Amino acid sequence: MTGTTGRDTAARDGAGRVRAAAQLMVAWVALLWVLEAVDLATGHALDGYGISPRQVTELRDIVPAAFLHYGFGHVAANTVPLLVFGFLAALGGIRRFLAVAALIVVVDGLGVWLVSPPYSVTAGASGLVFGLFGYLVVRGFVDRKALDIGVGLLIGAVWGSTILLGISPTQSGVSWQGHLFGLVAGVAAAFVFRRRTRRAPALTPG
After folding, report:
1. CB-neighbour burial class of residue 117 (10 A; exposed 0-12, middle 13-18, buried 19+)
2. pTM higher than 0.85, yes or no?
3. Which 8-state DSSP code applies to residue 122?
4. What is the rounded CA–CA span in Å between residue 113 and residue 200?
5. Domain at 9-192, CATH from 3.20.20.370, 1.20.1540.10, 3.40.50.620, 1.10.150.20
6. pLDDT, tens digit, for every residue of 85-97?
7. Three-state SS for 51?
């Protein structure tokens, strides 16, 4: 007879997490491309769901705006970093990832709504991309996990200069406000959704 060892179970659980994270992010990015195709086919009818600042009725567009883009080039620019950052973040648990993503999208959208220039309309997943970057860089230090610290340092080394450029107010035609608020929201999410370690009960004499 053969039994299942703890190592076998851990390997299966790890493979399951990898598969679930990959499937989620491929589906997420595929949705972005489908929505842009629908937008093109309908004469850009979806562009109206972008965020126009300081209009109360536009608050309802905060979430939809994170899934819409202005052209396939815009979608393409967000695809690779969203796949990479989203996959790495989702490896820590799908429910945790969805909570982190929801916080980033809402905080980022509210920030854009509050401070973007008048008569601008903002949409795109870049706020989420910047948020996941911030989350990944900080998460390991907050959770005190060596592997996640290493991942965060690697992510910072590869994409750090691009992120810094993206939050620069000197860039024209780019919502640096959305990038900045997304980054701040991602850092905050690492603290809000940090893993709390269980402390061993204190032994006290009776």
Report:
1. exposed
2. yes
3. B
4. 45
5. 1.20.1540.10
6. 999 999 999 999 9
7. strand
